[in-house]
Every structure is written in C-alpha cells, then in structure tokens.
Amino acid sequence: MVAISRVRDWSLLLICNLIWASQFVMVKLVQRQMGPVFATFFPMTLATLMLIPIVRRERQRENPGRGPARVPGSDVLQFILIGVFGQVVAQLFITWGVRWSLASNAALLMLALPVSTAVMAYFVLGERMTPIRWLSFALAIAGVLECSGIDWRELNFTSGRFLAGNLLIFLSVNGSAFYNVYSKKLLGRYSPLHVLLYSYYAVFVFMLPIVLYVEPQGFRQLPQFAPLVWLGLIILAVFQYFLSMVIFLHVLARLDATQAGLSNYLIPFFGVLIAAVVLGERLSRFMVLGGVLVLGSTLLVTVYEERRRAPANSRAGEKGS
Q1: CA distances from 122 to 117, 128, 129, 281 (A)
Q2: What sign has the CA pseudo-torsion 184, 185, 186, 189?
Q3: How many alpha carbons fall within 13 Å on the CB side of residue 270?
Q4: Does pTM top 0.70 for this prediction?
Q5: Neighbours of 53 (CB within 10 A)
Q6: Which residue in 273, 271, 274, 265 sits closest to 295, CA to CA?
Q7: Is the Cβ–Cβ distance between 265 and 298 less than 8 Å?
C-alpha cells in the first residue's frame, strides 16, 4: 500500500516538473507584448481568482453553516513571508536574472535548488539526510549535467557584468526553496488550497503597487494582446500557478521537503524534451541517459526510501506498544 501511494506521489511530481519546465517557453511567449513584472503579476492574479471560489467551497464543505475562519496574526505573518520571500522572489528574480546573465550560468545555479531545500529543511523542519538521499542527489546531479546542455566554456561567474544577474538567479533559487520548506510547516494547520491562496494574497498586495509604478502600460494594452499571448497567459495561470502548485503542495503534505525538492532536478530534463518536441532540437544519447538517472534518483528517494522506512516505523510502533 505504501509503495502504491509513493508511486502516485512520484507520478504527481513528474507532472508538476513537466509543467514547470514549460514555464520558460510560456514566459518568453507572453513577454512579446509585456514586461517581466506584468508577465508574472497578471497570470498569478488570474490563478488567485480561480482559487477563491474553490477554497470557499472547500471551507463550506468542511464547516457547513459557518463563516470564514479567522487566521491568527502569527499565521498571517507567515503567509506574507512565503508569499513575498518565496513566490515573489522566486518568480521575479529568475525573470530578471536570466536577462542579465548567461544561460549556462543560470542552468548551473539552478542545480542549487534541491540542495538549498535540503539545507533549509534541516534547519527549519529538522529533516535529516539519509544515505539514500545522498545517493539520490549524486545521481540527480550527474543526470542533470548530462542532459542540461551546459556550455562549460561559456560559464562566467567572476565578471562584474554578470554578477547582478547571477545573484538574482541564486536568490530566486533560494526563494523557491524557502517557499517549499516553510509551506510544509503551514500544511500541518491548513489545506494545500488555503496555503496557496493566502500566499497569493500576499503576492497580489505586494506586487500591485510595483506593477502600477513600473509597468502600468500592461493594463492599458490588455485589449491589444494577441490570441497567442492570451493563450500563454492562460496556460501560465491555469497550469503553472494553479494546478501544478496545488498538486505539489498536496504531495508536500505527505513527503519530506527534501524528497519533494529533489524532484526539481527533473525540470532541466523535461526542458530538453520540450525543446526537442516543440523546437525540433536534437536529443542526444547522453541527454536520454541523464534523464534516466534523474528519473531513477527521484524514484529512489520517494518510493524506495518510503518502502524501507515503513517496516522500521512498524517495528518502532510495536516496541512502543
């Protein structure tokens, strides 16, 4: 039963990372007619509007006849933290950072995401790195290096010209890690839908004045957006900021943050697949091998580790009784 549940979680993580891998194509598409701030703010606002009636129905189903529950002030502060220092930092800084850095720099810096998640999970949640997790990290990093297409000759971290972009990308990586880890704490008291909606409220309140000041033309140009741009915005709202995040938070409620975070190494692999299918780019044997290693590492840390943990937990329960 545990194995079936973990295979399901592994499959859901595959879906999430496949959606996230398509984000860069969609963001590039919509930025034909808008700036990076509006391209982040507008689809996230659409996702927030979609979440509101769903969360309201969930609340009415759980507490029929009652009004909305009051959120304690300490929790409001935590939702603001994950909204601003998690979502805003992760989404905005990666958009700006890639414009001021090299693609190879960005690809290598993205390798830090699962590692940052594991470090934060250790300090915030008390999660431990097991031998299986170390092995999974090693396999995943090897796989990503095989399939990500990093140009080692192009790498440049020392030039002042790329320093700002590299710093923004690194901060974005840590913003994603912070959101994943700190959301795990809130999932003990709130449903995944509530965690996502309340953090998006913080994103909306924080970003609205920034958008109005930096890119107000985005609102005025809404009627002029091409159908293809609208399609990109809808895909970002429905799949990137709504569906994938709901699925991920549901899985995160059952897995350790370190386990779920390691699945992010699938993003470069799926990015390569999407480029091969959509853009006709060549898919080499080394890329396929790298993808197999990454898939194997996530399977190892989600399914195999849980199968080994279950008998140990069972024996501990028997001793306790």
Answers
A1: 9, 6, 8, 39
A2: positive
A3: 19
A4: yes
A5: 9
A6: 265
A7: yes
Are the C-beta atoms of 149 and 88 separated by less than 8 Å? no
Residue type, 94: I
CB burial string 127-139: b at 16+ within 10 A, e below: beeeebbeebbeb
Residue 1 has what pLDDT? Answer: 52
Residues of the chain with confidence (pLDDT) below 70 = 1-3, 65-69, 98-99, 101-108, 144-162, 272, 275-276, 278-284, 286-287, 291, 299, 301-321
SS3 162: helix
CA 245, CA 287: separation in Å to the nearest integer? 27
What is the spatial distance between Cα 173 and Cα 181, in angstroms, rounded to a whole number? Answer: 13
Tens digits of residue pLDDT in 278-303: 656 566 676 677 767 777 777 676 66
Cβ-contact 257, 117 below 8 angstroms: yes
**The two structure tokens encoding residue 317:** 């329960």
Domain boundaries along the sequence of the chain: 2-312
Taking CA 210 as the corner, what is the angle to CA 208 and CA 216, rounded to the nearest 5 degrees? 80
CA distance 189 to 194: 10
d(CA 220, CA 267): 34
pLDDT in tens, 217-236: 999 999 999 999 999 999 99
* CA separation for the pair 266, 302 (Å, rounded): 14
SS (H, E, C) 267-280: HHHHHHHHHHHHCC
What's the pLDDT score for residue 32?
A: 85
Element (H, E) at 160: helix 160-186
